[in-house]
Amino acid sequence: MRITGGSARGIPVKAPARGNVRPATDRLREAVFSSLGPLAANSVVVDLFAGTGAYGLEALSRGADRVCWVEKSPAVIRTLEANLAAVCRAIARPAETRIRAADALAWQPPPDLRPTLVFADPPYDLLAVAAPRLFANLPIWTDQPSALRLVLEMPGEFEPTAPGWRCLRRLGKGRGQPTAGIFQPEPG
Question: Is 20 helix (H, G, I), strand (E, B) or coil?
C-alpha cells in the first residue's frame, strides 16, 4: 500500500500486523481522490476509524491544511504515527496534524476544527450503527454544511439510509468488494 498522489506519492503506508485493520486499497483511494478533484487542497479533514490513516495521509499529500485522525486502538495509533512521520517528511509545507485516541462514534471535534472533508471507514460489523450516526451528527460539525463531504467506505452490498444527504458518487466494484460513497448534505 502506498500514497497514490500528491507530494508524498509513492510513500509506503504500513498496516499493523494485528489490530483488526482493513486498509483502504490504493485503487479505491485513488478513485475517491480523483472524484474529489481539488476539494482535498486546503481542506480541513477528519479521518474517522482511521486505522493506518491512509485517507487522511492521502489528503495531506494532496494539499490538506489540517488533518485529524480518530482511532481508538493504541497499537494501531503507533503504526499511524509512523505513517504520518513518513508522509510529513515527504511534503515540503507546514500542515496541522492531530491524532486523537478515541471512539470515532463518541468523538466530537473541538470548536476550532470545522471539517470540510470527513473520511469514515468503520469496521463492517459496525456499519449499520455507524452510518446513521455519522449522517445525523456530521452536519453540526461545520458552519457550512453545503461545503461538507463525507466519504464512507462500505461493502458493495451495503445501502446506507442517509436522510438529508445525497450520494454524489459510489465508487468501487460492487457486491463483495469495498466501495466508497461520496455524500453531501442536502441544502436547507
Answer: coil
> Amino acid identity of 59?
A
- pLDDT tens digits for range 59-77: 999 999 999 999 999 999 9
**71-105 per-position pLDDT tens digit:** 999 999 999 999 999 999 999 888 899 999 999 99
- Contact status, residue 123 vs residue 49, Cβ threshold 8 Å: yes
Q: Give the containing element (helix H, strand E) for 45.
A: strand 44-48
| DSSP codes, 80-126 | HHHHHHHHHHH--S--EEEEEES-TTT----TT---SEEEE---GGG
Query: Which CATH entry fits the domain spanning 26-185: 3.30.43.10, 1.10.287.610, 3.40.50.150, 3.40.190.10?
Result: 3.40.50.150
Global pTM value: 0.94
Q: Given the C-alpha cell 507530494, which residue does it identify? A: 7
